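User: Please fill in residues for this 145-position structure.
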C-alpha cells in the first residue's frame, strides 16, 4: 500500500525546529477521514466534516496520539509520533490527520493509499509513523482484516 504524507501549509514548523516543549506535550489527536484534505486546509473545523463515522473503538475526533519526539540534526528536523491503534475495529478511511484539538491546528496528513480506501474488518487499524521529518515522510499503514 503506497502512503504519502505532508505537513499542512499552516503548520508552524518552528515548533519542531525549536523543540517547542508545549507542542511536544500538547494532546494531539489522530483522526481518520473519508476524503484526502487539501494541503492548504485552514484548521480542523474546515475538514472535520469528512471524518469517518464513529464506530466500535473509533470515537469522534479520533484518538489521542501518545508520545512525540523532535530531533534536530544538521539541517533536518525529525518528528515522530507514537503509533495509533484502533483495536478490533471495522473501519474504512482514505486519510489520517494529526491535529491539536485545543486550537484546531492541523499538523500532518497521511494519504493512506493514493486516495483509495484502506479498511479493517474486526481487526486492528494501525497508523505508524517512522522517519517523519519536515522534508519527507516514510509512513506505514497496517490493517488486519
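Assistant: Residues filled in for all 145 positions:
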Amino acid at each position: 500500500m503506497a502512503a504519502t504524507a505532508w505537513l499542512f501549509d499552516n503548520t508552524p514548523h518552528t515548533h519542531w525546529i525549536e523543540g517547542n516543549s508545549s507542542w511536544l506535550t500538547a494532546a494531539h489527536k489522530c483522526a481518520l477521514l473519508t476524503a484526502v484534505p487539501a494541503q492548504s486546509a485552514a484548521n480542523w473545523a474546515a475538514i472535520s466534516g469528512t471524518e469517518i463515522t464513529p464506530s466500535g473503538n473509533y470515537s469522534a475526533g479520533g484518538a489521542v496520539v501518545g508520545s512525540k519526539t523532535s530531533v534536530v540534526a544538521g539541517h533536518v528536523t525529525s518528528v515522530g509520533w507514537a503509533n495509533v491503534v484502533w483495536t478490533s475495529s471495522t473501519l474504512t478511511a482514505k486519510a489520517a490527520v494529526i491535529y491539536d484539538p485545543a486550537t484546531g491546528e492541523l499538523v500532518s496528513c497521511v494519504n493512506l493509499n493514493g486516495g483509495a480506501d484502506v479498511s479493517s474488518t474486526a481487526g486492528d487499524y494501525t497508523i505508524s509513523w517512522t522517519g517523519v521529518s519536515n522534508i519527507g515522510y516514510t509512513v506505514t499503514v497496517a490493517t488486519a482484516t
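For context: The beta strands are 4-7, 29-33, 63-64, 68-73, 76-81, 84-93, 95-99, 106-111, 118-130, 138-143.
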